[in-house]
Design goal:
2 copies of one chain form a homodimer. By secondary structure, chain A is mainly α. Chain A has 9 helices and no strands. The longest helix of chain A is centred in the first third of the chain and has 25 residues. Chain A binds a DNA duplex through helix 1 and helix 3.
Amino acid sequence: MSSANSLTVDDLGSAAQRDRRKRILDATYELAREGGFDAVQMRAVADKAEVALGTLYRYFPSKIHLLVSALASEFERAEAAFRDKPIPGDTSSERVIFVLKKTTRGLQGDPHLTEALTRAFMFADASVANEIHSVGMLLSSMLTQAMHPGKTDLTDDDVAIARVIGDVWLSALVAWVTGRSTAAETGAHMENAVRLLLRD
Amino acid sequence: MSSANSLTVDDLGSAAQRDRRKRILDATYELAREGGFDAVQMRAVADKAEVALGTLYRYFPSKIHLLVSALASEFERAEAAFRDKPIPGDTSSERVIFVLKKTTRGLQGDPHLTEALTRAFMFADASVANEIHSVGMLLSSMLTQAMHPGKTDLTDDDVAIARVIGDVWLSALVAWVTGRSTAAETGAHMENAVRLLLRD
DNA sequence: GGACGAAGTGGAACGTGTTCCTATTATGAC
DNA sequence: GTCATAATAGGAACACGTTCCACTTCGTCC
């Protein structure tokens, strides 16, 4: 696995380059949606995005970087969607469960895509730290906002709870994408965890 | 990924076969300890175990099956070690933290081995369900025993809590083996989670 | 002890992630 | 406009997981 970083939008000077990057990510999504992790083959991505294989590797130094970057931009969309509208629910747990279920349902609507992104996330090593960190921050921010809408001075416990919920969510997702549990079990397990952590 | 199962000890008739299986797992451990996931190369395992590549694949239908089987037998050892001696600690949380820290320290003493086993576990798909299930049961049993030594009529909450702790442990482990968090952070995060879940 | 099927050997071959090299094209300084 | 440099194209080559095949050995039943 390479130690270089993926090229972000900000790294790219010209419009042509930003367009190449977008074509690559679009091709990745499409292949992932159709056939999951295994279908995202680097030659296929390059072909579909109409870039050379070497160029693909210049933009994303490995398949894992590529998929985790795709995951990160998916999360950016999700986080942005929650940021504006208030989250329904009277208690922390209701709001957190709302966010989890909504996000999870979104993912479960695209099982192959989710499988591809989750597998990549779990397989990522330290060289993907930047991309992983983005995802972690976004998830944590979504959860703490759901717990305490508008609150900025979060306690250590708030952050710890969000992190535990994030862990459970990830484990549940892995169990689901790898066919070890059903969507319903995933949901029930997450609700259980939230109930145990946020007793309000 | 193949859909067949790994051959367990019970599946194997002759002593020569059990010996082959053991040689394969020993070779796997040795390579994993030296160089982690990437160093466990199927040709290298076959060479070191002195079996043909085809035989290796007969015993373990993929690299993932092989490594998750190795993980399962590691957990069997750990679980057996806890089963006999009483677990020190006056409260549930103390005992659970003891078990987690002890197990984690054991794993952290062999970073490459742990990396190999954890990566495999996280990458496993439904075809590895049997092996995964063994690991899950052993982990859950260790945790519930630590929470309530000797108790047999566990409540749903007991089981749910054990599962959440297991999830956190796994996420922490993944973060550690992929170099995203230090051993100390891993420990602190697990303690936090236990404290939030078991308030006694 | 001979026959037969299962298990094992040795190794070629294939697919896909990754690397690398050369030729060509775009970009920017002057 | 010209040139130097970087970026891209196109594709060969390599590594390792996996599959497959022809052959040999082992265990078992008669």
